[in-house]
Design goal:
By secondary structure, the protein is α+β, with helices and mostly antiparallel strands. The chain has three domains: about 150 residues, 2-Layer Sandwich (Aldehyde Oxidoreductase, domain 4), CATH 3.30.365; about 180 residues, Aldehyde oxidase/xanthine dehydrogenase, a/b hammerhead (Aldehyde Oxidoreductase, domain 3), CATH 3.90.1170; about 230 residues, 2-Layer Sandwich (Aldehyde Oxidoreductase, domain 4), CATH 3.30.365.10. It is built from 18 helices and 28 strands. A seven-stranded mixed sheet has the order 3-7-1-14-11-12-13, with helices on both faces. A five-stranded mixed sheet has the order 9-17-16-15-10. A four-stranded mixed sheet has the order 18-26-27-28, sandwiched between helices. A hairpin with a 4-residue loop joins β23 and β24. The longest helix is centred in the last third of the chain and has 28 residues. The termini are far apart.
Length: about 750
Amino acid sequence: MNLQTVGTSPHRGGGFERITGQQKYVADIKLSGMLESKLVTIDSAHAKILSIDTTDAKKIPGVRLVMTSADLPQPVPRFGPQIADRPVLADGEVKFHGEPVALVVAETIEAAEEAVRLVNVQYEELPVAFTVATALDPAAPLVMDASLRPDEPLAKTNIFKEHHFGWGEIDDSKADLIVDNTYSFPMVTQFAIEPHAFIAAPDKDGIAVWSTIQHPYWLQKILANLLNLPLSKVRVYAPDPGGGFGGKQHTKYEPALVFAAVKLGCPVRLVLTLEETFQAVRRTSCDTHIRTGFTRDGKIVFQDITANYLLGAYVDIADRVVAKGSYAGAGPYNVPVVRIVSRSILSHTPPATAFRGFGNPEVNWAVESNIDEAARLLGIDRLEIRLRNLAEKGDKFIPYDKPSDGNWRQTVLRAAELIEWQKPLLPSHHRGIAVGIKLGPTTGLSYSLVRLLVDGSVIVSCGTSDMGQGARTVFAQIAAEELGVPYEKVNVIMGDTATVLYDQQTSASRSTVLMGNSVLKACYSIHAQLKTRLAKVYQIDESEITVEHGKVKLPDREAPIAELIKSALGKLGGEIVGVGEERKDAEKDHPLGGSACFYEFNCTAIEAEVDKNTGDITITRYVTVSDVGKSINPMQVHMQDEGAAVQGLGHTLMEHYIFDEKGRIRNLGAADYRILTTMDLPKEFYSETVENADGPGPYGAKGMSEGALLCVSAAVACAVGDAIGTTIKDLPLTPERVWTAIQTQKSISSPQ
C-alpha cells in the first residue's frame, strides 16, 4: 500500500495554539454577565450535616447565590454513569473529604471566596471506612443508602458488585509450585495540567454548558435527564481539554452549575483548584490476593485472583473499571485454569473514576510480580518464563473471547533486545521485564461528517475529544490520504454537540479505530459520489472509474481528486458530503457486554541501579515496545507511549494519597503529592512499535496509548527484586520501602 500522508508525522493539529498559549481552554472563556463560583466543603470524610447557615455569606457585596441541597428540587437530584447515586450537592451527609455542601455564586472570585469562609456548617462526625479492610468489616458504616439499589443482594454491604470470571476447575495438586501473595496498588490522581472547569448558561429555552469533559454526549444525556429537557435543548461545548487521562470522562460539578445558572438566569463558572481536583478524581486503589500454580519447567497451571478495588463514596464509572480491568487479569498467557473474583468496594473516599489503563495496571502488577517470584524460586530466566506461557497469534487465551490478535512474542523479543537482556550488567545494576494486556472498546458508535469543498480543501466534523492524544491530527491524515489533499488543507471540527456528529465517548484507546474508521467510511462515501458525478461529466460508465487513496483513475488518465473536484461539481460549485458510521454493537451473553475490538499489548523492560544503603532507585535504561498494528502518526505513537511510561513510573516510585485516621487527605496539591520531574526520568529511553497491520482500524491500526502504562510497576519491581532477592508487594517503591525490604531480607539471611 503506497501511502502518502498516513505513516508520516506532520505537525500536530492544535499544537501551535497549545505551545504559544493561544488555545482557549474552558477556564479562559469569558461570557457576558458571567458570575464566578466556589464550592463550600467541610474538613471531614464522613459527617451528618446538622445545619448550614448562609446568612453572613449572603451579606458579602457581590454575592448572588448561596445554594445548598435545600435549594434544589426535592428529592435532591442524583446522577452517575452507572447508577444515579451522586447528589448534585451533599444531601444530609458528607461522604468524602471534599464533597461540596454548598455552592457560592458571586460577581467576583474574591467575593465568592470570602463568602465561602462565612458559610457556617454544623456537622457531626460519623465513623469512616476508607480502606478495603475497614469497608469490608461487618461493623463498618454503610456508604451507599441501600434504597438506591433495592434489588441488589449486596445492598446492605459496602460491596457494590462482585464480578466472577474464569474457566476450568482449580486443582492445587497439579502444580509443582504455588506462589501465594497479596499486593497493594495505591490511590493516585490523574494530575492533568489543565484544571477541571465548568460554565453553565441559560440558552433560550434550554441550557448550554462548557466543560473540560471527555464525553460531551454522555454529559448531555445526564443533564437532559436532570432538567427533564430533550437532548436538543442541552448544548455541550467541549473545547480541547489540556489532558484528561480518564479523570475528565464523566460528569462532576456541571449539574450544580446548571441549577445555579437556571436560578440566576445568567452564566456561572467554576474552576477547581488543584487541591479540589485531587478530591474530585482519582484512580481505584486495589488489594490483590493471587495464587499462581506452576510446573517445574515454569508453565502456568492456574491463576486464582481475588482483587478488591476501592471505589469511593459514589460509583461514577469505577465498577466498569473493576469489571473490565480484572476480566483479562490472568494476562496474555495460555493458562488452562483461571478463577477471578473482583469486588467494587464503596468507601468514604473521593469517587474513583477512569484512569489510563482502566483497572488493568492494578491487577497486572500482582500477576507479573508473582511470575517473577516463581522464576526466582524455579531458577528460570524471567524473560524465558514469560515466553513459555505467552499466547501466540490466534490463541484463545480467554477461551470464550477474541483470540490473540498480534505477534506478541515479536514485541517481547524486541524489548529484550533493546534492554540487552543477555549482556552482563554493571555492579548494582539490575534488569526487569514485564508484559501487559488491555481490552480495547467492547462496544462503540462513532459518526463523522466529511466535506470535500470545491477548492479541494476538506472539513472533518466529529464528536471525539482531543485532550492531547492527537486525534485531530490522525483524522486529518486519514482524510488527506483518502481525498488526495495536503494535510494542511484539512480542518477538523470538534467539541460542540450542536454542530458535530455523535461519538459515544473518548476512552478505551478507541478513537483511531472507531472514529478513524468512521472518517474513512465518510471518505469512501465521497469517493462513490465523486464517481457518479464524474461519470456524468465525462459521459462514461461508473465502472470505468476507480477512486482510491486520493486518486481518480479514468480510462485515459489518472489525476488527484483535487484536480477533478471542480469538474465534478460544475459551475454551481459547492461540496460533496460524506457521512461515516462505525458501530460495534453489544453482545448479549458476553460478561462485559461485548468482546474486545482489539487488544493493547506492551512489553516494558528496564535497567535500574538500586542503592542498597538508601533504597533509592535510578532508572538507567527504559524500553517500551507496543503492538500497534499501524502507526498512522509515528511521532504521536512514540509520544503517547513515552508519556504513559512516565505516568506509570509516577505510581510505581512515588505517587500515593496519604490519609489520616479520620479519612482526610493529607497531601493535597503539588507540594505534598510528589510526581516525577525531569530529575527522575530514565537516563536512556527507547520507545518502539511492532507494526504488522493486523488491527481493525484504518490501514490495520490498533488503539494504543494505554498499553505502555500497564506493566511499568512490575518491570521496575522485577529489577528491584533481582537486586534485593525478594518481592516487594506494596506500591509505591519509595526509598524507605525498598530500604526496609533490604533490611528485612538481611535479617532473614543472617539470623541472630
